[in-house]
Amino acid sequence: MKRNKLIAGLLIIALVSLILFYGNKTQISTLTVSSPVFVDKTMEYLHQSDKWRDWLPAGDTSFAIRTIDPLTLELAFKKGDSASPVARIQVSPVTEAEPSSKIQIHYPAKRYQNWFGNPPQQMAQLAEKLDRFFNDTKELYGYAIEHSFVEDTSYLFKKITIPTDLVFEKLPLIYDSLIQFARKQHLEYRGVRIFNIHRLDSTHCQLNASIAIHGTPALSDDNIFLKQMPYKKNLLVAYYRGSITEADKALEALEKYRGDHGLIRMAIPFVQLPADDFNLSDTAALDIKVFYPVF
Which residues pair with 145 in a beta bridge? Predict the structure, then answer.
């Protein structure tokens, strides 16, 4: 009986020793992060070295990023005059046809860390921050961006050429004239006001403004036209609360998003203003949507 207990005890000790020995061995582990943009664009963002300070733990301020090949980076932490590699970051396409890629973080870790799903804090935080950066449009582009569809298809449209500094003075007047025109013709004003600005030179622009309607107008005013959009066609839309003057920045973000995702511009982008807020000064904080028609 005692002998059996001794043998059992020795076996348990041997098993624990084997587990500890095997579990403490170092192996290369991998964390994978999805990126919704093309491989070259993903690498372009990863090369933005100022972002790495946000992606690594607060204490890891001394580091180096080295390019191994066009799709591989090496992350090292500096100690004195030397830098010790801690991870390799490789990017590859998910499929050749889709504008998406995967980021694989290869790092050395003890086997037991993988058993318990507990990667080193540095690597876990890096994967989490990269995932948030690439998959949250506000992080990547500065604005919340979504896919939408054309819903209102008929618009009363008016354009004027004016000094650029008069845009916020003239825009409410144009909308007022379009709404009054719609009412006289018993058309339903849908509460949607959109505009875009075509800059002609450093001082003048062409201001294009429209309101969404339901019905068919008799166009008795030579300055008012009917414009139509194809129903359910694709739109990118950026949301923000702020000044109308920020619309150009949102449009730049949409243009970048369009290029990153391989989309094709279908028509001129436009800004949609809130239906119930006519305070169109250049400082008023409004809930604004910027639309970009795409294929």
Answer: 238
What pLDDT, in 10s, does the model give residues 91-103? 999 877 678 999 9
Instruction: Say if CB 52 and CB 65 are below 8 A apart.
Output: yes
pLDDT digits (tens, 9 = 90+) for 179-192: 999 999 999 999 99
CA-based nearest residue to 135, from 126, 147, 144, 148? 144
Both tokens of residue 7?
A: 């043998």
The pTM assigned to this predicted structure is 0.81
Distance of alpha carbon 107 from alpha carbon 62, whole angstroms: 18
